[in-house]
Design goal:
The chain has 244 residues and is α+β, with helices and mostly antiparallel strands. It contains six helices and seven strands, in the order ααβαββαββαββα. The chain folds into two domains: 75 residues, Helix Hairpins; 151 residues, Heat Shock Protein 90 (2-Layer Sandwich), CATH 3.30.565. α3 runs parallel beside α4. The protein is globular, with a radius of gyration of 21 Å.
Length: 244
């Protein structure tokens, strides 16, 4: 069903309004964080029990401010209206660049990376840095699923019919069946301290690129994420989408 242009404009306006509000929230949060840190530094080394209790409360407040900063930053990435600047891009290059950045962190957590790239894949119309953000969110989720247990992470590229496919498969704890349908809901998170916006943001970016993302999982065995993207040729044929 076609989207009502008035409804689309209203959603764009609300997104812009929410993004502006988030920016306004970030400024006082930064001020709070700085002053809490100054108070903490002034109290350090004191042995008076009341000062020690105050210091602990300051540290709690500081952690909560940092958590709010993460929520606001993730929300801005999720809600910000975008006009993509698509360029023909090699999927393998984008994936490898992102993995190269993350590999030391994976190694530190006892995670072995396996790369299976299909060579000579068609180009895909992509805003490189934005798609990398989506991929980063998916990969960080996979790392968190193997937190404290290590494991193997396989990243594979291939052709899936007329689309490009990217698989991210981990050997982590898996997702219970009752939670799986909710993983793309904003603010739903199974991780302590998580904002619940990583996967929703990834899905929005991927869908803005004309792609799809699907997740299958088995508790205790791991999770598989498949991202499908159009090639430059198929995107150019799709009505209403800019050519790569």
């Amino acid at each position: 069903m076609p989207i009502d242009p008035r409804r689309e404009n209203q959603l764009a306006y609300l997104g812009e309004l929410a993004g502006g509000l988030a920016h306004e929230i970030k400024n006082p949060l930064s001020t709070l964080k700085i002053n809490l840190r100054l108070l903490r530094d002034e109290s350090r080394g004191e042995e008076d029990p009341r000062v020690v209790r105050t210091l602990r409360r300051l540290q709690t407040c500081e952690r909560e401010v940092e958590r709010l900063e993460r929520i606001v930053s993730d929300f801005l990435r999720f809600a910000r209206p975008r006009e993509l600047k698509l360029e023909p891009t090699r999927l393998n290059d984008v994936v490898e660049e992102t993995l190269y950045f993350l590999e030391p962190e994976f190694r530190q957590h006892g995670i072995q990376l396996r790369r299976l790239y299909t060579p000579d894949l068609p180009f895909s119309p992509m805003e490189r840095s934005l798609f990398q953000q989506a991929l980063l969110n998916v990969l960080v989720n996979a790392r968190q699923a193997m937190e404290g247990r290590g494991g193997e992470l396989m990243v594979r590229t291939l052709l899936d019919g007329q689309a490009l496919a990217l698989d991210v498969i981990d050997t982590g704890e898996g997702i219970p069946p009752d939670r799986l349908p909710r993983i793309f809901q904003p603010y739903f998170s199974t991780k302590q301290g998580g904002t619940g916006l990583g996967l929703p943001t990834a899905r929005r970016i991927i869908e803005d690129h004309g792609g799809t993302i699907a997740v299958t999982s088995e508790p205790g065995k791991g999770t598989a994420v498949r991202v499908r993207l159009p090639t430059s040729a198929t995107a150019a044929l799709a009505p209403g989408r800019p050519p790569g």
